[in-house]
Design a protein that fits this description.
Largest sheet: 12 strands, antiparallel
CATH superfamily of the largest domain: HIT-like
CATH topology of the largest domain: HIT family, subunit A
Bound molecules: zinc ion
Oligomer: single chain
Strand order of the largest sheet: 1-2-3-6-8-10-9-14-15-13-12-11
Number of helices: 6
Helix content: 10-25%
Shape: globular
Radius of gyration: 21 Å
Structural class: alpha+beta
CATH architecture of the largest domain: 2-Layer Sandwich
Strand content: 15-25%
Number of strands: 17
Number of domains: 2
Distance between the termini: 45 Å
Order of helices and strands: EEEEEEEEHEEHHEEEHEEEEHH
Length: 396
């Protein structure tokens, strides 16, 4: 099964201003999306660059592997002390861990090696994770002793987990992508956010990248992930509660006020664009941490205009390159898109990206030790203003 279409990605949900009013239509990216299915029934989507000259139908390359039908299952259990869900996904223990380069499952398929991507080349590709934390097939695990106990609440780990490959080049990094390719990745995020947000089993869509073995990445090929959670995540809920209290007190949006105050202070601003602002937050948790906000409140990636997506390419690539140069080279980092929940508090939320590294100096990593892991109380040994100065001083 396959279909090819030029993606119009204005966003199925939330396109427009935070109060839901429609906005002027932005121009549509010419990124081309082609859908197909893998041997075990999982969905895969090719996203080709707007300036791509490839003419072969990507979906004409079938998955030649013999895979058992994927039937992943996980549960979510409720922690009443912390008022949050924990996902129990035992089947993930068997997932691929740092395979040799010639067995990389994210490189294109070639003679003698059939990978997760059947085509012999690709620009950007998104597919359902074979070892997902959340899946539509999940059924709740059953512990006889816990049945009907109100303190032992369990539910199926419904939702969706997808993998996003940024390039077919095994040795590249997001920071080395061309602007056209970075734009294609953004369009893939937009497309997936809109589609997953419409699923009844998804309450929040999280696009993110874990980079570097030090972060626990099990595959070195440049890629990110997308989680469609069956609940609103604890951090998002906490941020929204703060934003709600701020709005009741002041009538204003907390995220918007933070951006405005950072711009006024100026000491932690790293990149200032017409549509985006990147800064080290006043109370940074990590030795190297940059937050990237659109200058206008929008709930999620599909709500960005063409101009905003365009400038995001430049600003994000610059932020990543500055962060890498601070420590001269490969940087372990996490890049996390904070988007509004799919159905609630969309007027309160404010799309933004948080990028942070656990590297505090060349050869030195910051681990989450006792205070952070056990108490949730962060100790950061780098002054945020000093981190911002170093990021600004980098010569690109
Ligand atoms: Zn690879």
């Amino acid at each position: 099964m396959s279909e090819g279409l030029d993606v119009a990605v204005p966003g199925a949900r939330g396109s427009g201003t935070p109060d839901g009013a429609p906005q002027a239509a932005s121009s549509v990216s010419p990124v081309r999306k082609t859908a197909t299915t893998l041997a075990d029934g999982r969905e895969l989507f090719y996203f080709d660059d707007g300036d791509s000259d490839q003419t072969t139908d990507r979906a004409s390359f079938p998955d030649r592997r013999h895979l058992d039908a994927a039937a992943p299952s996980s549960s979510i259990r409720f922690d009443p002390l912390l008022d949050e869900w924990v996902t129990i996904a035992g089947h993930r223990q068997t997932r691929t861990h740092l395979p040799p380069d010639d067995e990389c499952p994210l490189c294109p398929s070639r003679d003698g090696h059939n990978s997760e991507i059947p085509a012999p080349d690709y620009d950007v590709v998104v597919f359902e994770n074979r070892f997902p934390s959340f899946a539509s097939t999940s059924v709740a695990d059953h512990d006889e002793a816990a049945a009907d106990d109100p303190l032992f609440v369990v539910a199926p780990g419904l939702g969706r987990c997808e993998v996003v490959c940024f390039t077919a080049d095994h040795d590249a990094a997001f920071s080395s992508l061309s602007p056209a390719r970075a734009r294609t990745v953004i369009e893939a995020w937009v497309d997936r956010t809109a589609e997953l947000s419409d699923r009844p089993d998804v309450e929040q869509v999280f696009c993110f990248e874990n980079r570097g073995e030090e972060i626990g990445v099990t595959l070195s090929h440049p890629h990110g992930q997308i989680y469609g959670y069956p609940f609103v995540t604890p951090r998002t809920r906490r941020m929204l509660e703060s934003a709600r209290a701020h709005r009741e007190r002041t009538g204003r949006n907390l995220f918007a006020d933070l951006v405005e105050h950072e711009l006024q202070a100026g000491t932690r601003v790293v990149v200032r664009g017409d549509h985006w602002t990147a800064f080290v937050p006043f109370a940074a948790h990590w030795p190297l941490e940059v937050h990237v906000y659109p200058n206008r409140q929008v709930p999620d990636l599909p709500s960005l205009t063409d101009e905003e997506r365009c400038e995001l390419v430049t600003v994000y690539l610059e932020v990543l390159r500055r962060m890498e140069r601070v420590h001269d080279g490969a940087l372990p980092y996490i890049a996390a898109w904070h988007q509004a929940p799919a159905r609630v508090d969309r007027d309160l939320a404010y799309l933004h990206l948080e990028v942070f590294s656990i590297r505090r100096a060349p050869g030195k990593l910051k681990y989450l030790a006792g205070s952070e892991s056990a108490m949730g109380a962060f100790v950061n040994d780098v002054l945020p203003e000093e981190a911002a100065r170093r990021l600004r001083d980098v010569v690109l």
